[in-house]
Amino acid sequence: MEHYNMNLTLKIWRQKNKDDKGGFQSYQVKDISSEMSFLEMLDVLNEQLIHSGQDPIAFDHDCREGICGMCSLYINGKPHGEWKGNTTCQLHMRAFKDGETVTIEPWRAKAFPVIKDLIVDRSPFDRIIQAGGYISVNTGNAVDGNSLPINKDKADASFAAAMCIGCGACVAACKNSSAMLFLSAKVAHLALLPQGEPERHSRVMNMVAQMDKEGFGACTNTGACEATCPKEISIANIARLNLEYLTASIVAEK
Amino acid sequence: MIDAKIPAGPLDDKWTDYKGHCKLVNPANKRKLEVIVIGTGLAGASAAASLGELGYKVKAFCFQDSPRRAHSIAAQGGINAAKNYQNDGDSVFRLFYDTIKGGDYRARESNVHRLAEVSANIIDQCVAQGVPFAREYGGLLSNRSFGGTQVQRTFYAAGQTGQQLLIGAYQALERQVALGNVKMYNRHEMLDIVNIDGKTRGIIARDLVSGKLERHFGHAVLLCSGGYGNVFYLSTNAMGSNVTAAWKAHKKGAAFANPCFTQIHPTCIPVSGDHQSKLTLMSESLRNDGRIWVPKKQGETRKAVDIPEEERDYYLERRYPAFGNLVPRDVASRAAKERCDAGFGVGTSKQAVYLDFAEAIVRYGKIEVGKEGRENVSEEDIIVLGKEVVKEKYGNLFDMYEKITGENPYELPMRIYPAVHYTMGGLWVDYELQTSVKGLYALGEANFSDHGANRLGASALMQGLADGYFVIPYTLGNYLADEIYSKAIPTDHPAFVEAEKEVSDRINTLMNIKGSQSVESLHKRLGKIMWDKCGMARNAEGLKQAIEEIKALKKEFWSDVKIPGIINEYNPELDKANRVADFIELGELMCIDALNRNESCGGHFREEYQTPEGEALRDDANYMYVAAWEFKSEGNWELHKEPLKYEVIKPTQRNYK
Known about the structure:
The complex is a heterodimer.
Chain A: E1 5-14, E2 23-33, H1 38-51, E3 74-75, E4 78-79, E5 101-105, E6 114-116, E7 119-120, H2 123-130, H3 152-162, H4 169-173, H5 180-191, H6 200-213, H7 224-228, H8 236-253
Parallel strand pairs in A: 1-5
Antiparallel strand pairs in A: 1-2, 3-4, 3-5, 6-7
Helix pairs in contact in A: 2-6, 3-5, 5-6, 5-8, 6-8
Chain B: H1 14-21, H2 27-30, E1 34-38, H3 42-54, E2 57-61, E3 79-80, H4 92-102, H5 109-129, E4 154-155, H6 161-178, E5 182-185, E6 188-196, E7 199-207, E8 213-217, E9 220-223, H7 244-251, E10 256-257, E11 262-268, E12 291-295, E13 312-313, H8 315-319, H9 329-341, E14 353-356, H10 358-372, H11 379-405, E15 414-423, E16 426-427, E17 440-442, H12 460-480, H13 494-513, E18 517-518, H14 519-534, H15 540-560, E19 561-562, H16 572-596, H17 620-623, E20 625-633, E21 636-643
Parallel strand pairs in B: 1-2, 1-9, 2-5, 9-17, 18-19
Antiparallel strand pairs in B: 3-4, 6-7, 7-8, 10-16, 10-20, 11-15, 12-13, 12-14, 14-15, 20-21
């Protein structure tokens, strides 16, 4: 792999707090190595800003290995940037060329208000889980793990949905700011398992109601969520969600 | 000061007897008892959820924007449990034995045995919660091997086991939040504990968004705040992982045990340059199929694929034929360092070894061909089939490797090197997980108790969940049963006022330094001192130098750190400064502890103490104890020794040959 250095112009959204109007500001960074991660490039900029007495850019990040779901940048018009199936922290600078201008924004969605600069409030996701994204089993009630064999294909499909990291890129990518991919991933994870059966109907009804309450938009099957999801969660989960919701609605009407 | 309170009786019966005789709190009283939980990783989330289910009033705190992001989420390989589903000779005793031996005989028998006993319950609990573990075609749970054992007892969910277990615990926690039993405080950081009449009664927390300080009362406080690997700056920990909660507790009376016991994980992606902010682990599970090697020739310049088989040194298989690539982490890390130091390293930095899947790909390919009963299959087709199998097992790890390095590990061997990963040391706790301060508990990686001087792979998840789901619900009740007459203490009590003032003064002091060096640059320097002198190999002279260098760095930090912004706003630089100030103090204690321990054991390798073959040489006569350090004043600690008594296992020289 050929390594190279680059100079970049960064157009970054700055916003002091949730009440501030905010706006773009431009910055220059020099001698960025193609081996750096995108967030390490922002670290370089922040060191520069601190030394020149300016306020560093606030952005969410933690594990920096693509699994915690904390990082959340809109890079050149795409959540988590250009690479497919990727988080911002795993985007590396070899994706950029010398002299490029890179635009960095926070997630944009009414339900995710900006806290500062590039940081948004994603607590609606926690509240959607609180509405039913679990199996009601208290500690100490479990039977032997192997007493309940589960078809491997179903277990695998459940796992594929459970891989969601709750980053919110699906919402940010959606023109309607819909949280359907996030919600459907949880509904599918639990609906595909026999353990999820007893609460299957109430779960989907309550979670959808909470999603609506939080101010997320509706799904119009554009597929931008699936295309941008760092864990490549399939849009087929939304179809499953709709089926679950419809079934639950009919059962509820009885 | 330290009494481990190990129940009497035979090892097998201790936990059962304890559970049968500990005090209970009736449901009406539980509603009046308040418990504070710091951190929402596996230990914290499972504890908060389980205590909420029992009816206690729980407040849980995390510094991330959601409890689901705690760093347990990044654990990859798996979780051990003595289920013996594979019929390969596993048992509670064997898991207990492997863990004690893996820890190089520096862990407490009673705690480890309890851990092994409850391990099976953890799997059942997680399955009941809907954790999608890997399964066989018959629908039953699948297992794989991990280092330091000869059985298959590791349960997993691809390379994302920690994520799936944490999501399970997080969901259980959110359910309790919805039921009103747990109140969750996101983006909050604990900055001090509040002791009243010798008991912990609350905390001072900072709302990281508004910057405001808050006082919270609790009849008990549980620290589930993880490990302190970031003292090395570069580690596999998350950027925010820190020692602050544990360190504040330490300075308010909780002894800190075996701080020098840190785990350097053998298989991480090597450092690529000075810009590096963190290191990424490649799961130990890869050593099931990957073979580790370096060229036989020093300073080799050929590409890996051009080096013929007979010119490769599979040094782990050569040195440790019984365990081969699956030796414990400390052994594998030291062996990699030894080869690189001797000039056999690979890659541009020469600080790396190969982890090669070529043979596994062919082996799996042939198995697939065999299953399909095909004949005359070309070598290329076998490789294609084999890659598919490897992808199913380790796909996400291979993808991660490719994103970071730009190299395709299906075609080229991975380059790996050891990196700081886990800290076995932590707050000293007794059998009940209570620290040396009454009412203050430590769970998971934040305590010291179960892994001795070296943790075996897939045991951290097991311990975090054991502590939270199955231990603390009993042991905390035993304490709180005597607290039913203690009314909630109003937070205008002088102890709260004073603690808040201390925190506030310290923050003001930090902000007013207005020096010239960023927090990050000072943290990097601390990391370099620690890695060079208190890392994979240590010696008395280096440690003495490190202590002096850290003292000087501490002075420099408190006179020249530069923190931008203001206090009452979202200010990540201030958060970091608070944490790094604590890391500096901890670093000094780690070096003091390493200097005190004149032996090598597990991850603590003192160059002066090794066998002629270069293995760790313990000194059981003089150091078979837990070193519990009591904070006296700045830079001044008193050592308390908890002797380790082995009643069941007979300590021997660890042998993986």
